[in-house]
Amino acid sequence: MDGCERDELREFARELDGRVRTGQGLDGRPEQDFVVGYLRTQVSRLAKTLGRMPTRAELIRELVKDDILNKIHPATFVMLLQADPAIRLAPDVPLSGPRRSAERRLTLALYFLPQAEREHYRQEWGAEMADMSPSVAACFALNVLIGAPGSGLVLRLSKIFGRQAA
């Protein structure tokens, strides 16, 4: 998305937000189609990245990073999501105890890896854990944490020395 489209999307979102705040509603405005299409694209891209459907919180976090729809009212955001039945999000449920400990272990394990590699491994391990039960995910995360110092060392040394013939 180029700068012109970003500015246009921000402007459309502000117009729609103003209509919702004044109680006018969305009523099938042409701007709505453009903004909802952007939301649909972002949900699809995020689902591919995570390996599962994103939650509303994950979508909002991603939209704030893009700095496009982060200044609109939550009610406007909900109305835009409801405007297209094709946009489906996973339910926002609090993490269970084992799932929370698994997330914490993965976060800790990432600190052992080089900074350039962290996001890649966060996505990879998160996608693997998404299909596991909380207790299995906790065991997986523990094993990742145990192996993380060695993996980080190997990644750093391979970056320093490159590939060496055996």
How many separate structural domains? 2
Structural class by sheet pairing and helices: mainly alpha
Largest sheet: none
Overall geometry: elongated
Approximate helicity band = over 70%
Tally of helical segments = 7
Sequence of secondary-structure elements: HHHHHHH
What is the gyration radius calculated from CA atoms? 20 Å
In what range is the share of β-strand residues?
Answer: under 5%
Overall strand count = 0
Distance between the termini: 45 Å
Indicate the mean pLDDT. 82
Question: Unreliable runs, pLDDT <50, ≥5 residues?
Answer: none
Q: Mind explaining what this structure looks like?
A:
This protein has 166 residues and is an all-alpha fold. Helix content is 71%, strand content 0%. It is elongated and about 65 Å long. 17% of the residues are buried. The model has no long low-confidence stretch (mean pLDDT 82).
Short summary of the structure?
With 166 residues, this protein is mostly helical. 71% of the residues lie in helices and 0% in strands.
Topology at a glance:
Layout: H1 3-21, H2 30-50, H3 56-66, H4 74-82, H5 97-110, H6 115-130, H7 134-161
Helix pairs in contact: 1-2, 5-6, 5-7
Features:
7 helices, 2 domains, 166 residues, mainly alpha
